[in-house]
Amino acid sequence: MLQEFPIILLGNSAMQVPTWITVLFGLLLVGLVLCLAFEEKLHAKKSVIAGCFAVLCLFLGGACGILPFEDVVVGSHELAEHGPIAGEFIDHEKVNHDVEIPAVHHEEENEDSHASEPAEEEPAEDGSHSEKHAVPVHVEGHRIHMPVYIPAVDWGVIAIILGSSLFVDITSKSGLFTWIALKVTKASGGDPLKLLIFYGLMTVVFSAVLNNVTAMIIIGSLTAVSLQKLGRSEKLLGFLLVEGLLTNIGGLLTLISSVPNIILGTAANISFVQFVYCAAPYVVIATLVTLAMSAWLFKIRALRTDEEKAEAAALVASFDENDGIESWGLFWFGAAMLLLFILVIATTSILPVISDLQMGFVAMAFAAIMLLQYKSKADEFYRALDWDLIGFFMALFVVINVMEHAGVLGTIGGVLEGMIGWGGSTAILIASAAFSSVTDNIPLAAMLGKILLALGTDINTATSTASPLWWAVIFGANLGGNITPIGSASTLVAVTIIHRHKIPLSFAAFVKAAIPFAIVQLILAVIYVNLFLS
Prior knowledge:
two-stranded antiparallel ribbon; mainly alpha
């Protein structure tokens, strides 16, 4: 028999927002994108721009009464048994969502209990039947007071960036990344095109089994070392930019490669194997096309003459990968931790305890372990962190959260819903990519998933595949990150690494360089979804 406990009702908090409020905040979102586009002309860092908009959005959101200032319920569990409370349906319109509901008793021995009886509709005053819906009930929770902007931040992403950055920075002190980079460089024979292919394929594989941010941090560090050793630092911009784009292609490969994949794939009942089977051909084609385009657009050429090859071979032969290793004990410790880090990150979703703590915990835990090697000067690594990047993400999360409460994301979802009937999978793929390039693709994916479920789209029993509409949203939500530097965390990390090496790249310059890749990738996705997944 279930124990007696207090129940806190957490109903649907959605509220109707006046149109003028949605328009106002929509204009603020456009203003943020424009300010980021002219970042260099404003002489302001991304974190300052996003921070100012976050402050403005919070103030206006509070003034307009659209932000939830209630206490936050933590430590609760959803009461799934029977769905409704004590088997009865509750009219949403009559429920005060903050009220506590009296304790519920479930008597196992009473098989004829009222809790097992189906609910009946009550007749309304006009003789019709008013529909009663079950509401989600959370139990065993307690309320805490928390500023509204704290839960707005995706602390999992912040923890991944902090932990991964610290881990990579500390591990690099062992000489491990220099050793790996020189090994890859030697394998390429000093040929820039081979090096691009090697690092491009590594980026896709790492993005498929790790999270995109971690993959970009690791591959970006290795790339910088290789090109500096070869004396080809002028090619670093092209390498890092294409690696940032490839993280979002690699993120399409498996069901767990990105959060939108998990949300939409689970909602559409797509299995892990089926997801890989359907997405892998596109990932292979898009990767090869992206590498070919980057070689052409950034003039990354293969060594052609015997003289060039001999000169490169002599240069590579002069490299000693052991030069940067001060302590072999620290080197092998770093190597073991890197392998363990990759293994744990890749299997986080299936490991007991770790699956609940998630990837952010894994990244922070490994960073803490590596910090023990330099415990007396840990502050040096703290100062080396990119606080502008972290501050920007925190402010951006706050802005997007306020946009959600202001109905901006709901309006975007409504527009996309209308486009489904107008242009089918092609329209929804392109539109979801466009919106994902300037908003968080996670709430957008969740919203579109609900819309598709309401439309009755599900697994096609004849072909055992999901409706092409599901795949259109999955591809659009992932590939939209390749249009702007704020479209995904990994592309923003790529830009940050570029700036760290004193290479100028503005918001507009990124869009100009990335848009040819994004257009080709989206065209390939439209063709692939319509011809092979329909």
